[in-house]
Structure formats: C-alpha cells, structure tokens
C-alpha cells in the first residue's frame, strides 16, 4: 500500500500546563482534499501551523512523503507547502504585482511567471482585476486573488485556514465553486480547516474531526455522518437532540423507546431499561398534511411553532410533546401551507435516529471508572 503524503504520529503541544494538541495519528493522501473540521478553539489552526513547519511541537513525528522532518530537511520540506492565512494580506502594488511576488521570491524565470499568470488569471477570472489595487477590490474579489496567489505557486501541499469565513453568501458560493473546480483540475493535496459543515461536505474528499486538540474520528463524509463516533461528533455533523427516554423493548437492534408518553423506534445497542438520548438530522424529517401509509415507523402529530429562513432552506420548529425541527425547501413550505399554529404530521425513519447513553447512564459509567 502506498504511503500517505503526510503522516503525523504522537503529536503533543501544551501551554501553561494545558493540553493544546494530542494527536496520536493523522494522515493525508496524495491529491485529496481533507477537511479538518471542528468548533472554534479545538486546536485546528495550531495543528495547521505545526504541519506547515512554522511551529514546533513539544513532541511527535511528522513525515512528508515518507521522510521524517528533521532540522536538516525542515527548510527544504517547507518549500513544498503553501499555508494560506484566513485574512488576506496584500503588498504594495497591483493585483498583477501581488500575484507574481511569490514567484519572484522563488526565482521562477520570467517566461514561466507569465505562463502561470495567464493560466491562473483564466482559472480565477482575474483578467479584469490585474491592473487594480487590492484596496479597490470587494471582499469577494480580494479573497479570490488571495486564493489565486496560493495556486500560482503550484505547491505540493496547500493548507487553508477558514478561507471562506466572513464572505457574503453570493461570493462565498462562487468562490467555493471555483476552489473546488480548480483544486480538482490541478490535483493539489490540500487540507481545508473549517468549522462550517457545508464547506466540509461540499469541498472535501475526506474529513478529520478535531475536538479539544484530538482527532476523534476520520473517514469519508458518509461514514462520519452515518456513524458518528461520539455525541459531540453527531452534533457537529448536524444532528439535533430529539428527546431522552427509556428502552422498553429491544429486538435485534430495533429499540422501542418510551418518551413523553410516546413510543419511538430507533436502532441501537442499548438494553431494555436503559436511558437513551435520541439525535437526528432535521433534513431527515418528513412533513405531510395527513399521516401517510408508509414504511416510516415514527409519525408525530405536531403543531408548527415557528418558521425561519436557514441558508437556502427553511427551518420549521414544531411541538409534539417535545421539540422537533425539520429543514425543508421553500417550495415545500408553500405547497404544504405551513405557518405557525398549523397542525401537520412529521415522520422520521428509525434508521435516521441515532441513540446515545442518557445522562444518568453516562454518569453511572463515569463513576464506575473512577
């Protein structure tokens, strides 16, 4: 099996007695875009600086293309990497000058500079901007030039720290689309640091979830969405807490859970009598004016409490003895005549619910381990 382009082993960083990073293993494969995903403050940016060889860890090993990073080869390996900061910093001169500056520092000959400039300008649609100064650009245009400055260097490794944060919706979608298309066409091995699930899902081939300085799960987006390793990963992947209840029956993994006077069906490993918390993704909830005859096991008569715009969808907040949310299209809202006070049916498949130990079960487990 081919060795990964980047491997990290037993990486540790601490500050003032507090653990910042503790990564036992991490890898990056040739040509892929990996999303390093997690909430703010989880250690993602520190990890990126360390693997960019801009900061030294307290301990651990880093391997690039099978070669261990050492004092002797550190500078040589660093030249293979472009690390793009979140906020663009431009130098004196036009967009044309800023695009070529990195190539001049690397002593790329003039003919090659021109070739790359023409190619990248075409890919990022920058020709109309080349003669302008950075302070004359909009926020989206500045970010487009910022990304182009990284791609024009043709790095072997491209590391980006929240590159689309703070952009308005229109520019963000345009730039994300350009980034995906251009990165794919050039095949650059990339890490994208983000706390935005939509960015991770739309741009990455694989995901590593970081919480409190640790990689708690890595795999394909489908694997992590369908089988999150922890309740916190489940939440980060867009799942919401539905309700806590008690397992009344267990039949080959199909659980009947009693909560708020209702029976709810889900799949899980918990035994009869155990308390569980159910989580779900709002986009998995089905809305219907009448209860349909279908294979969906869980149907609830709900009252709509609130309707809110949510990115390109609509979030519907409902009550059926407990709170329930659904993400639906604007067309669905119109077709179903949804509005506060309306009563409808909400369905969710047993396979769309994830079960976690209830609070009492977690506390009991922690006490047993003390």
Summary, kept brief:
By secondary structure, the protein is α+β, with helices and mostly antiparallel strands. 29% of the residues lie in helices and 35% in strands. Helix 5 packs parallel to helix 6 (169-186).
What does this structure look like?
With 370 residues, this protein is of the alpha+beta class. The chain has eleven helices and 20 strands. A six-stranded mixed β-sheet has the order 6-7-8-3-9-10, sandwiched between helices. A five-stranded antiparallel β-sheet has the order 13-12-11-14-20. Strand 7, helix 6 and strand 8 form a beta-alpha-beta unit. Helix 5 packs parallel to helix 6. The longest helix is centred in the middle third of the chain and has 18 residues. It is globular and about 75 Å long.
Topology:
Elements: E1 6-15, E2 18-28, E3 33-37, H1 44-51, E4 59-64, E5 67-68, H2 74-78, E6 81-84, H3 95-105, H4 110-123, H5 139-151, E7 157-161, H6 169-186, E8 189-194, H7 197-203, E9 206-211, E10 214-219, H8 221-226, H9 231-236, E11 240-251, E12 254-259, E13 262-267, E14 275-280, E15 286-288, E16 298-310, E17 313-319, E18 323-328, H10 330-336, E19 343-348, E20 354-357, H11 359-369
Parallel strand pairs: 3-8, 3-9, 6-7, 7-8
Antiparallel strand pairs: 1-2, 1-4, 4-5, 9-10, 11-12, 11-14, 12-13, 14-20, 15-19, 16-17, 16-19, 17-18
Helix pairs in contact: 5-6
């Amino acid at each position: 099996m081919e060795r990964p382009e980047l491997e990290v082993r037993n990486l540790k960083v601490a500050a003032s007695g507090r653990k910042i990073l503790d990564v036992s293993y991490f890898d990056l494969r040739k040509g892929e875009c990996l999303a390093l995903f997690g909430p703010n403050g989880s250690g993602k940016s520190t990890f990126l600086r360390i693997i960019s060889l801009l900061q030294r860890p307290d301990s651990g090993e880093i391997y690039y293309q099978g070669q261990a990073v050492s004092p002797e080869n550190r500078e040589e390996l660093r030249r293979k990497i472009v690390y793009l900061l979140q906020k663009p910093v431009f130098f004196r001169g036009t967009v044309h000058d800023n695009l070529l500056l990195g190539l001049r520092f690397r002593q790329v000959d003039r003919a090659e500079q021109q070739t790359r400039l023409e190619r990248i300008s075409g890919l990022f649609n920058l020709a109309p901007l080349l003669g302008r100064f950075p302070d004359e650009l909009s926020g989206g245009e500045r970010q487009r030039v910022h990304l182009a400055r990284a791609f024009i260097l043709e790095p072997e490794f491209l590391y980006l720290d929240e590159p689309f944060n703070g952009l308005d919706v229109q520019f963000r979608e345009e730039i994300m689309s350009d980034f995906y298309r251009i990165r794919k066409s050039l095949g650059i091995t990339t890490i994208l640091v983000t706390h935005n699930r939509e960015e991770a899902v739309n741009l990455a081939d694989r995901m590593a979830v970081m919480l409190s300085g640790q990689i708690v799960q890595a795999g394909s987006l489908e694997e992590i969405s369908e089988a999150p390793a922890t309740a916190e990963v489940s939440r980060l992947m867009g799942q919401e807490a539905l309700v806590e209840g008690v397992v009344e029956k267990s039949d080959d993994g199909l659980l009947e859970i009693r909560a708020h006077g209702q029976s709810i069906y889900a799949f899980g490993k918990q035994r009869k009598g155990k308390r569980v918390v159910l989580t779900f993704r709002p986009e998995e909830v089905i809305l219907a004016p009448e209860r349909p005859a279908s294979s969906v096991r869980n149907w609830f008569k709900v009252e709509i409490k609130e309707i809110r715009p949510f990115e390109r969808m609509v979030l519907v907040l409902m009550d059926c003895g407990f709170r329930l949310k659904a993400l639906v299209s604007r067309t669905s809202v119109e077709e179903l005549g949804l509005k506060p006070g309306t009563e409808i049916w909400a369905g969710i498949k047993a396979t769309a619910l994830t079960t976690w130990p209830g609070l009492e079960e977690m506390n009991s487990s922690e006490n047993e381990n003390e």
